[in-house]
Amino acid sequence: EDAVSATATASAGPDAADAAPRARYVLRLADASLVLAQRLGEWIGHAPALEEDLGLANTALDLMGQARLLLGYAGELEGQGRDEDALAFLREEHEFLNPTLVEQPNGDFAHTIVRLFLFDAWPHELYTGLTSSSDERLAAIAAKALKETRYHLSYSSGWVIRLGDGTEESHARMQGALDALWPYTSELVETDELDRKMIAAGVAPPMEPIAEAWSARIDAVLRDATLARPATATYRWYGKQGRHSEHLGYLLADMQHLPRTYPGATW
Question: Which of 256, 115, 136, 240 is nearest to 187 (CA)?
């Protein structure tokens, strides 16, 4: 992580006009990893098998590492003196910018795996594009995260195929999870004003090729899993802009309890 943090320090940083939207864009990436890491951590000691307990825990740790790098960079960009801990534990619900998908409850193992797969396919494509970002610091973080994301995608897609093309019971549970979670995927690949600003600045890659690659990857795995892709559905959430489902508040209450109860405490 130190090597990634040191990358591009000799380069000219963004000017004041660019720093604020860039910080918000980086926070989006950080919050996606942070919130999903928290959700996956809830499985520790409760997964259906020891191997999956470890698999989900390791994925959560990878995501937490990505979140730390991104939160640290976002704090530097915004210039308000907030470090990774302040950004993780002292922001309110509406200040979080994660996609709504990752805050959805774990449900059963089928729901967790489907949520993980639908998410994993997105940063896999996005981080691939971000490795060519004009922001060298962000490109270095993306390159590190991409290596981990390849494993995450292999893990989650493997389970989707195994359970989708498994027993009648496992297939039904996977299809039910896919139907329930699909409406939350739209915002992953939609382009909003912040995306357009970052694309124009060369910080973010164009979203159209990412959306196409994400969709193609989803279709290929669902085909092998004998699962039906649900129809596109309308939705009222847009977590990337701070409009969340009812679930994030409960998650943050749990995640932020100790730092807020004992402010400034250290080990």
Answer: 240
DSSP state of 11: S
What is the chain's percent helix, strand, coil content, to nearest 5? 70, 0, 30
The tally of CA atoms less than 13 A away on the side-chain side of residue 35 is 32
Task: Name which of 93, 81, 111 is nearest 31 in CA terms.
Answer: 93
How confident is the model over 174-200, as a mean pLDDT? 96
Output Rg (C-alpha) for the chain, integer angstroms.
Answer: 18
CB-CB contact of 132 with 139 (8 Å)? yes
Distance CA(88)–CA(66), nearest Å, equals 13
Q: What is the pLDDT of residue 235?
A: 75
pTM over 0.85: yes
Q: Residue 120's pLDDT is what?
A: 98
In three-state form (DSSP H/G/I as H, E/B as E, the rest C), the secondary structure along 36-77 is: HHHHHHCCCCCCCCHHHHHHHHHHHHHHHHHHHHHHHHHHHH
Q: In whole angstroms, what is the distance from residue 261 CA to residue 267 CA? A: 15
The per-residue pLDDT for range 98-135, each reduced to its tens digit, is 999 999 999 999 999 999 999 999 999 999 999 999 99
Which amino acid belongs to residue 219? D
- What average pLDDT does the chain have? 93
The CA distances from residue 120 to 7, 94, 112, 182, 255, in Å, are: 25, 24, 12, 14, 22
- What is the C-alpha separation between 1 and 3, in angstroms, rounded? 5
Nearest to 58 by CA among 149, 188, 164: 149
